[in-house]
Amino acid sequence: MILINFKTYPQAIGPNALKLTKSLEEVAKGFAKVVVGFAPPSLELAEVAAHSKSPIWAQHTDPAREGQYTGYLSPDDAKAAGAVGTFLNHSEHPLDLETIQRTADLAKKTGLKTLIFARDPEKVAEFVKLSPDFIAYEPPELIGGDISVTSAKPEIIGEAVKAAGNTPLLIGAGVHEKTDITKALELGAIGAIVSSAVVTAPNPQEIFTNLLSGF
């Protein structure tokens, strides 16, 4: 499984979000056994979901229901827009434990899958208790850098996998080439979350092909 987080990079906002999704979907056709999903910016979520056959994820949702919640992105809204799941607690949008729990509970009731980000194996173990569908282990200090978590902290990936137990674990932070994927799988992860390595690349399709070949 590989998820591409578009964040709000200029290459993936406005009409670029759907354009990038379509170009990467063409690459994914050659790797049918890999689950490929995308997390576009919130304003592009509905547009991308309406024109994509891939699983589309919300980058974040709030602990809000339908009704009087001005400025919030509720799980109900994300689901209605076409999302299959929601990210929670990314290091760029951290949440306290109570908020994570409340939002995860609402997401489950709405029918959204939940993926909670954890900065270390201790947090992985803590979040397992919330029964998410997936956990992503991402050391914040490596996000957006050239050094991947698989090379900087391979031993901790094993600890994170062990802490996750039966909850599928993805890895992220600095993932940018085939060897990062193969190493993650060897260590027990089911795949990865990738952002800048693909989204901001001069040739996103080329980088994505290389990553998918790691599976």
UniProtKB/TrEMBL annotation:
CDD domains named in the record: TIM (cd00311)
Alphabetical keyword list: Isomerase
A single GO molecular function term of this UniProt record: triose-phosphate isomerase activity
Classification via InterPro entries: Aldolase_TIM, TIM_sf, Triosephosphate_isomerase
Coiled-coil regions listed in the entry: none
Cross-referenced Pfam families: TIM (PF00121)
NCBIfam families: PRK04302.1 (NF003302)
Identification of the protein by name: Triose-phosphate isomerase
Taxonomic source organism: candidate division WWE3 bacterium RBG_19FT_COMBO_53_11
Classification of source organism: Bacteria, Katanobacteria
